Amino acid sequence: MSKLTLQYEGIVLKEYALGTGVTIGRLPDNAVIIDNPAVSGHHARVYLEGNQVVLEDLRSTNGTFVNGRPITRQLLQHGDEVLVGKHQLVFDRTAGEAPPVTTAPMEGLGDTVYLDTKQHRALRATLETARVEAARSINPRPASSSAPAPRMGVLRVVSGRSEQDEYDLGAHTSLIGRSDTALVRLQGWFKPSVAIAIARSGNTYIATALGGKPLVNDVRLEGRHNLEDGDMLSVSGLVLEFRWKDAERAESAA
Question: How many whole angstroms separate alpha carbon 9 and alpha carbon 205?
């Protein structure tokens, strides 16, 4: 099984087996907890995509870097060094089977702060340029032929307790769970902190199971699922329907 080795200034701190995926961040509901104010509450995630391992930045404050380059989403190769805050995570593709590592919750972590070093300020400037370029690739300027913009997906609440009746999936990554950073907040202490992550790429929405026992169309969600119009997500008593926003408008007008 693949693993991540957490290091700080060359010193190995912990090793984490990846399994189907892990989240990385400062808050105690992450699998990889980094107690450093330069790390966002939910900073990044690593998950399986077929036989490949993908690293995705979760709109962190200080960015995520692979081998010194800022990334928003990237396939990991054996030996890649991931920089999160001031900590390194080394990806080992050939690691043998290992039990998952658990870490005690951290308290009094405070808000995320920006790293204030000349090197990291330069890296942040590069990251911002990469984010702008990525946004342009997803939402390009309309050509003279008036090419259609990417479609917007929404989650409509069918049953269960929820703060809203409908949620727009406009962000690059939208979370469902009890966490404060989740778009769809699950109600109750015993709900999973992050149950599902929904990643958007153009006209494609991909749901990834990260906790609990979520269902898609009454089938256990294991790994990743490309969402289609009308798909039903069941998460800890909350039932959500994935729809395209233009389809929602057409139904309202009918």
Answer: 38
